[in-house]
Amino acid sequence: MKDPGPSLGDGSRSHPLRAALGETGAIGATVRQLATRLDMAPRHIERALDRLERDGDALRLGRGLWVLRAFETLADRDDFVDPGSFVERFQQENGVSLGRYAGPITFRSNDATPVHRWWPYVQGYSAEFVRSMLSAHSVVRGATVLDPFAGSGTTLVEARRAGARAQGTELLLPAVLAARVKTGFELEAAPVSRGAEGVLNRARTLSPGPLPFLRETRRQFSPDALEELTRLRDALPPEGDPVADALRLAFGRILIPSSRLHRSPCLGYGRRHESDGPNPTDRFLTAIAEMTDDLRELKAERGRWGPDASIQAQDARTAGWPPGSVDFAVTSPPYVNGMDYVMNYKVDLAWLGYARSYRDLTLLRRAEVACDNLPRSETLRYVGLERTPDPWLNEILPRIRENVARKGSYRRDDMHAIVHRYFADLKPVLAGVYRALVPGGRFVLVVGDSLLAGTYVPGDLLVARLGTSVGFSIASVEVARRRRSGQRRSFELRESVVTLERPRGAG
Ligand SMILES: C[S@@+](CC[C@H](N)C(=O)[O-])C[C@H]1O[C@@H](n2cnc3c(N)ncnc32)[C@H](O)[C@@H]1O
Question: For the structural domain made of 5-72, what CATH number should be given?
Fold first, then answer.
């Protein structure tokens, strides 16, 4: 690598660094990307960028991205279509104005809520939100409630507590385990406590066991934590009966807190001194104590429970729910280019034995709704811009493709194909839920918009429009909260509650 030393970024407007950054336009570039592009050492790029920043020419955005000041305000760019104009078009074309949803929506409050706290799923929504939806849509005892992307079972727990028949599909097996255990209200506390004692007694007699296949396991955990966790894991009874499943879930819950990792919401390295906290055995005992306390409390409402919940480890795109079998559906699908659930839950997948190789992780990623880590072979069919699921995508996808091409070194050059596939993945789920709902039945989705490769993608409005393409009418779109773009902290995104209705008398 040639290294011209610290003279780079000398303030000259025609300097190669300014030119390279300018070419990346509104998307910006990281130090590493600029270093590769200019074939220079990252430390010199960093120094030059600092100088450009001091001179007011460049600024640092979220995720280590740098952008020229001229590109800071996306809305000023000729090729940028801002959120407001999509909202206006939505009103004109779909006849719906955006409202407000005032209740709490994020999973945060679930961390302290009995039963929901058994497996904190940061990607979930709050139990309060589900309760308010069940009541707002007059879901009565004995009704059937469906969640096609059931996650850790927030919907299913609340639906069953309200006396409904709860059913869901979900592909991520640690989440399926959580949903199954959390909806098994009949479980008694005493056998769980006895089972946990048995696990601890067995673990004491075992030698440390083999590590899961993940290459970075030794980096993720201290040697002491690894020994203790492998012994606890090997002492768990085989999955399959309610007590064994509850013990396994408690073990799953302690994995990330016992590691050097944190999830907020993406998995990353955080605490260096994980030895500061309680050891895995103490964490396991705390998890069991919370579970048994909640099980005792739950029994007070026994008379109100709906029938056994059903959670299927199944692909929502092809689930084939029986026609007319569902009264109300509520979910939060993955967001466009949002979360790679497989990457974020690989530790849980590997330690709980649900994935035994990197190939297993890839297979699961292929089945999940598209995220931006999808293998390239999975986006090939979507690279062309024909047959997009909504006319708005005919404008948005080429814009993403052009921005990525202009930048030259974006993470992937098929980003537009990933977005295309994301909406193509959601459409059969919408169609399946439409068929499954009774006439007049409603489908509520919590979904966000995105900023991708400097292009605004109104994910919530697109989902509502896709709904109409399979027969739904749009009852409302209500903005529940504002959030910041990970790509550009100054850019405000939203999270909306989209309510669709299967019209009465429709075929
Ligand atoms: C936002 S989360 C749902 C969280 C859930 N509402 C809760 O509170 O726990 C989206 C879920 O969709 C699941 N998912 C993605 N693609 C799927 C597919 N094709 N079929 C079924 N589930 C899928 C993911 O594994 C993830 O758990």
Answer: 1.10.10.10
